[in-house]
Structure formats: structure tokens, C-alpha cells
Design goal:
alpha+beta; Glutaredoxin; four-stranded mixed β-sheet; 62% helix; binds glutathione
Length: 219
């Protein structure tokens, strides 16, 4: 059986978890904090989650895991089979990761974990996020999903990255990055209501206290 290694507070972990659930695949969750041991770093060289264990071994990097699942497993498709259409969806997912997730992530310590982030880092993140959201609203379809009429890998990134980046905007900059994008706001609300997304959110809420204690111990 597939095994998903990581922790429920991780937004990247939850992207893969939602893909597995939406595809109706059986999988087991394995609590995993790769930075804690040399064995962890053998499975995940950069110490990140998620990692997927399959028959032949381990696969790390969310985008790679998602493509692997698409190529090897059954269930509702989260990527088009046609190469050009597939590239369009993957480009949207990549844009969300590079231009929204990564700048927002530099502010997570202050937005979510009670630690201060340097003003220069916050200013850079704010600027990049404004551009990232402008780019997303120019390129995404929101009709009704990010890439068109069906749920795709781009929606997984959208749900789990944009929600956090939006919270960063509201908490640190007093900006709602989705203010100019009502269709995007509506999609976020709809995705949050997916039964599987609600289960994932509940698992995250359960895991949060232990995670915060671990962060405090690492400080
Ligand atoms: N490029 C990685 C990024 C994954 C990532 O950043 N995971 C975070 C949790 S959301 C993590 O493992 N952080 C641990 C750390 O950086 O020490 C992917 O796509 O899977």
C-alpha cells in the first residue's frame, strides 16, 4: 500500500493527501520529521515533507509525487492527458508555488509561529506576493476551477498555498490579496468545503498543538 510520510500541519503534505483522497486511493500516513535523523535525510535529502513510499522505494518533492500518482494510479484525473493542456495546468501550479507559496513562506514564522521576521524580508515578500497574485488572477481561469472546468493539481496548490499566503497578507500587511479576484475567493471557499479537504483540516487542527510545541523546542 502507498505510504505518505510527513505531518498534517504541512500544506505540501496536504496537497498530496488531498490528491490521494480525491483519487480514492488507499494509503497509510506515517508521521515523519526528516530533519530529526540521518535516516530521515536519506529518505528526504533536503529534510522536507511529503515523501511517498511506493513498491520500489521513496519519492520526494510534491510536484513529482503528484505527477507519479497521475501516471501510475487510477481515479479521477488531476492532470489532462493531452500534453499541451497538461503543460498549462502544470504552469499554473508552478506559478502558484514559485510566486505565491515561496515568498509567503518567508513570512510564515511571524504570521503563524509567533517569531519576528526582518522588515526587509517582509517588504520583499509583500512586493513579490502582489506580483504573484496579479499574475495568478491574469492567468487562472476560475471557471470554476483554477485551470478550467475540473479539479486539477493547480487547485491543490491553490487551496493549500493561496490560503496561507492570503493569511500572511491579512496578518502582516493588512492586504487581502484576493480582493480584486472574487471568482478566486469563491473557489477557495468551495474547495475548503470539499469533504476530503474538511477531513484534512480537522487532522491539521488535531496535530497543531504538538507541532507548535516542537517548533518552540527547536527555537
Ligand atoms: N519542494 C518541497 C517543499 C516541501 C516543504 O517545504 N515542506 C515543508 C513543510 S510544509 C517542510 O518539510 N519543512 C521542513 C523544514 O524545512 O525543515 C516539495 O515540493 O515537496
Amino acid at each position: 500500500m502507498l505510504k505518505l510520510y510527513g505531518f498534517s500541519v504541512s500544506n505540501y503534505y496536504n496537497m498530496v493527501k488531498l490528491a490521494l483522497m480525491e483519487k480514492g486511493l488507499e494509503f497509510e500516513e506515517v508521521a515523519f520529521y526528516p530533519w530529526q535523523s540521518p535516516q530521515g535525510l536519506e529518505i528526504s535529502p533536503r529534510g522536507k515533507v511529503p515523501v511517498l513510499q511506493v513498491e520500489q522505494g521513496f519519492i520526494h518533492e510534491t510536484s513529482v509525487i503528484l505527477e507519479y500518482l497521475e501516471q501510475t494510479r487510477t481515479g479521477p484525473a488531476l492532470l489532462p492527458a493531452e500534453p499541451f493542456q497538461r503543460a498549462q495546468v502544470l504552469a499554473l501550479a508552478r506559478e502558484i508555488e514559485l510566486y505565491i507559496e515561496l515568498p509567503a513562506r518567508t513570512c510564515y514564522p511571524e504570521a503563524f509561529f509567533g517569531m519576528a521576521v526582518a522588515e526587509a524580508i517582509k517588504a520583499k515578500a509583500r512586493d513579490e506576493l502582489l506580483q504573484g497574485f496579479a499574475s495568478l488572477t491574469r492567468h487562472a481561469h476560475f471557471a470554476p476551477y483554477v485551470a478550467g472546468d475540473s479539479l486539477s493539481v493547480a487547485d491543490l496548490y491553490f487551496l493549500y498555498s493561496v490560503s496561507l499566503a492570503r493569511a500572511v497578507g491579512l496578518k502582516l500587511f493588512g492586504i487581502d490579496f484576493l480582493d480584486a479576484a472574487p471568482a478566486a475567493k469563491a473557489l477557495l471557499e468551495r474547495l475548503e468545503q470539499l469533504p476530503n479537504a474538511k477531513r484534512i483540516e480537522a487532522d491539521k487542527a488535531t496535530a497543531m498543538p504538538q507541532f507548535l510545541a516542537m517548533i518552540a523546542a527547536r527555537k
